[in-house]
Amino acid sequence: MAMEKTFNASEAEPRLTAMWEEAGAFRAGANRSRDESFTIMIPPPNVTGALHVGHAFNNTLQDILIRWHRMRGFDTLWQPGQDHAGIATQMQVEKMLASTGQPSRGELGRQKFLEKVWEWKGQYGGTIVDQLKRLGCSCDWNRNAFTMAGAEGDPRIGHENSPNFHDAVIKVFVEMYEQGLIYRGKRLVNWDPHFETAISDLEVENLEVAGHMWHFKYPLANGATYTYVEKDEEGNVTLSEERDYISIATTRPETMLGDGAVAVHPDDARYAPIIGQLCEIPVGPKEHRRLIPIITDEYPDMAFGSGAVKITGAHDFNDYEVAKRAGIPLYRLMDTKGAMRSDGASYDEAATVAMSVSKGLQTLTISEADALNLVPEELRGLDRFAARKAVVEQITAEGLAVMVSEAFEDEDGEPQTRLVPYVENKPIMQPFGDRSKVVIEPMLTDQWFVDAEKVVGPALDAVRDGEIKIMPESGEKTYYHWLENIEPWCISRQLWWGHQIPVWYDDEGTHYCATTEAEALEKAGGKTLTRDPDVLDTWFSSGLWPIGTLGWPEDTDEMKRYFPTDVLVTGADILFFWVARMIMMQKAVVNEIPFHTVYLHQLVRDEKGKKMSKTTGNVIDPLEIVDEFGADALRFTNAQMAALGGVLKLSKQKITGYRNFTTKLWNAARFAEMNEAVGSDGAVPEASATVNKWIIGETAKVRETVDAALEAYRFNDAANALYAFVWGKVCDWYVEFSKPLLLDGDAVTKAETQAVMAWVIDQCVVLLHPIMPFITEELWGTLGERQKILAHTDWPTYGSELVDGAADAEMNWVIGLIEEIRSVRAQMHVPAGLKVPVVVRNMSEEAKAAYDGNEALIKKLARMDELHVVAEFPKGTAALSVTGAEFGLPLADIIDVDEEKARLEKSLGKLAKEIGGMRGRLGNPKFVASAPDEVVEETRANLAEREEEEGLMKAALKRLAEI
User: Fold this and answer.
1) How much is the pTM?
2) 820 is in which domain, residue-wise?
3) DSSP alpha helices (H): ranges in 412-472?
4) Structure confidence at residue 959 (pLDDT)
5) Using CA atoms, how far apart are residues 275 and 264, in angstroms rounded to an integer?
6) How confident is the model at residue 956 (pLDDT cuts 50, 70, 90)?
7) What is the CATH number of the domain that holds 861?
8) Dist. CA 222–CA 216, nearest whole Å
9) I want to staple 633 with a disulfide (CB 3.0 to 4.6 A). Which of 185, 519, 629, 906 is the partner?
10) Could you tell me if residue 703 is inside a domain?
11) CB burial readout 810-832, b (16+ within 10 A) else e
């Protein structure tokens, strides 16, 4: 039965996916023929997730490596699974409850709510698995893992064969606690007032918004004054005045109530006279105004604002560090909803204690300071932003706002001036919860922490000593920077969905850490216990992904065969949050590295290098791409743009181009089928015809190139080599070169060419399979009777021994001549359909033999008339650059030389301006240092393209000058 005219991806892809699954093609160890294993752990997508371009890119690269190793006979495992995604899943389920009119989370209570979460997970949690299958991902789906597998209430839907991941997580927590690696403490965290939980830095979006900076006076205690002096760069006095206050600027006036000090730089001479003095916080009841010390610290920037910074250690990360260094109390002002606190003793009692602390008469523990509520009664219970407005009004009304002169026109239109509060309207960076979309509050809370300093050493050594290689190299520098400056890792979250912390408390607050409540009760001697309501951060559980998915702590066969794993392919943005923590935790738990190579990639952006966002409207949906172009075109595009460390720019235009590539491959296979050039048994055919020897050698060369590229994780080099070979060497050249042999050759030559073409097309299909699995599997099954499916076909091992030097030289000479004629024709604007004569002189014997043996092909493909051997080139001949002979195109009577010169010179002038502008930007150190990396890289790439274009134009002008 003849092949269809086109490849129907929408019909073939689900059919092939079902065939692979039914055959168990992707099971761990499938097609194994050697002892070595090769394992990749999928970065587990959130159970709430849907496939986006980042997933599509990341998983394409993993699948290329997995399919390549599986075809080479490795004992291969690509471990799939999903993360339970605590905050995201809880949000989705709460939305579902609200939209369907069911009781809220609070009304249901914890147990009933978690039952709803498990129901939701069973119904929607497999969405991304189905979408990854549509992309062609060859995971062992039978082993699909889940980070909450084995937890209470788990119905085992969608992860039937997952190890009890929950048991592993709890065991590790308890062991790390008993080793002193986990503790409970009060520290500053990112607090989400909507979800009422701590969140990680990765869940915070810092966005630029319109903001205000207020300038206020903090009066000096006891009416003290000092001479405030400002000087210019030369040391000349520009301002000198007596002040009884110190001026500060703030974007968050409501936090002034929790100030513990005002800090200035130790080198700031303006404030030297008042260092160590007390100043008054200008808000709150006058009779209980708090005094705070003026201290020095390296943190304040003398050139920014007034150079004086209020220190609110319980509500700002920078202030927190200053407060720790200076022993300044941390006064928390807000509750879990982001409202001003309304608990505790009265304001006057709290302020009296705080005043005693400022005067050095009393010290507070961190818990005692946290218990003080320094919010005045009239502000208690107010939302933080309402409190901000009230604080600004109170300070301004008291005359403690810094005033500046403002010009205005009176009723008669006359210019006047007046004093107004100094408020700068300026853009500020503000943290938002990436899911709640509310402003995140840095806040002092009680949380569980990993003492990261105690576990970071082995993780640093693993990379320093070369046990683990991070690619690109810039990733290693980032890794060292983060780990050498590591802070305690907050691992608790105030959610219900997640691994509940295995700690129980008695009535006195003593806590007992145990794997089960029964163990905790035994440790407590039978006391009544209450379990800690918090759950573990998902980064803690996913940090155990490599061993948890393989059945640890059980001594499983999978742990023996597949751990440590091989390569981790993931985004550079989670190098610290996930990659580094996996290394730390595997080292801490089993004293092994989790993988030997980390391949980091950047964010996938649009064709202009901009981040994709729904707001901008530049989001590319990979599933829509698969529907329109097929999965293979998207996968090939992903592979082609995967330059290590490069900017990943995706466009529909690129995808369209690679869809055309699939069509080109299909058409070449149809040509082979129509000429009965199918059914290769895989053995390298014997060849005597030069063109057949040549294409066998070219196939061998590209196999070596592809293997070397994939070995080095240069996916783009592998894709580009295959594209150039399949489209260029096979479809464009070999198909054309073979036609005379297939149509006009003798029976022996025709049979040889059929055998060679069948083998070459098969090799194209085999070599392309890791990148383009669907069309290649379809062609494999169509073009002959096979012993195995393509996914299990042996990867070729032939190499340079198949290259015939003479055939290689001859055919590449022929191709070079044809391409040179085509190039000059295009540069000189010779009409495409016009056949032109060619002249030649000083032709070597080798060149003559190559020409004579391929004359008909050369004339046809170069659209060439007759070849004339001459002693001298006639006037108006454009010389060609060809080895072993001097060829030329007589063009004087074919083109208007002056018109071509004018056109090229005009284009060159325009191009020179563009090149000059780009060179200027790249030569400016400020641009290179401050512009985003992707902008700098894009400019460099554009410059290289323009310079290449300029070179071609100059070469064309040079040819015109010769004419």
Assistant:
1) 0.89
2) 811-892
3) 452-464
4) 66
5) 8
6) low
7) 3.30.2320
8) 18
9) 629
10) yes
11) bbbbbbbbbebbbebbebbbbee
